[in-house]
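Q: Sequence in, structure out?
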Amino acid sequence: MRHTQGRLLGKMEGLGFHLREEATLATLTQDVIKTSEIEGQKLDTQQVRANPA
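A: Exactly. Output:
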């Protein structure tokens, strides 16, 4: 999975900063969701990306 993420990030080098940042956030969000499923918890995107402030 990390290898795939690295390849994706490498391909995004030509994109604008905002789009690259959003794609990185989406990748990390999915990683957290998948990890939580492995641990027996079910989180959705809103829970993971919510701002606690």
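Residues 2-49 form one domain.
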